[in-house]
Amino acid sequence: LQELEKLGLRDDVDLHVYEVPVEYQTVQRLIPALWKKHSPQLVVHVGVSGMATTVTLEKCGHNVGYKGLDNCRFCPGSQCCVEGGPESIDSVIDMDAVLSRVSALGLGVSLTISRDAGRYLCDFTYYTSLYQGRGRSAFVHVPPLGKPYSAEQLGRALQAIIEEMLQLLELSEDKISCQHEH
């Protein structure tokens, strides 16, 4: 992410980078506060997964099944993100389109798609963000540095992924506003 901050995004995009602690209660407080503070067009979460060997685009976040203890040895009693919330929430971003567009750029990084972010803090954060932003959120799992990609490769891949996501979001918003005009 430091690499992404260095690279930046298009000139018309305000990029805010935050580190989110691996703590359920902090996530429940921080994610809504960030949505409120910035009213972002899109929030993209990035998590390192020791099991990942590709850059993985997560399609959805899940509400229930959180049994793992966080860094504070805490686990939500309800084992869910939002009591009474939907079972899962899909991102409004078409991850298949992002995958094919970014793969076509030949950045030397392979991408895959997943529907299960793992029922731990990554999934918990993603669902919380999808819930707050009505689906205008994305989650990207990346492998640990050097396994196999360098920080620079991951930074460039994230830059390309986020720019494609923003473009897709803008296209879909244009379509929605056209439909309202007629």
Structural summary, described in words:
The chain has 182 residues and is of the alpha/beta class. It is 40% helix and 14% strand. The chain is built from five helices and six strands, in the order H-H-E-E-E-E-H-E-H-E-H. It has helices at residues 2-7, 24-38, 95-103, 121-132, 151-181, and strands at residues 43-48, 55-58, 60-62, 88-90, 111-114, 137-142. The protein has a four-stranded mixed sheet with strand order 1-6-2-5, with helices on both faces. Helix 2 packs parallel to helix 4 and helix 3 (95-103) crosses helix 5 (151-181). The radius of gyration is 16 Å and the shape is globular. InterPro entries: Peptidase_C15 (IPR000816), Peptidase_C15-like (IPR016125), Peptidase_C15-like_sf (IPR036440), PGPEP1_Glu_AS (IPR033693). It catalyses: Release of an N-terminal pyroglutamyl group from a polypeptide, the second amino acid generally not being Pro.
Keywords:
alpha/beta; globular; protease; two-stranded antiparallel sheet; Aminopeptidase; 40% helix; 5 helices
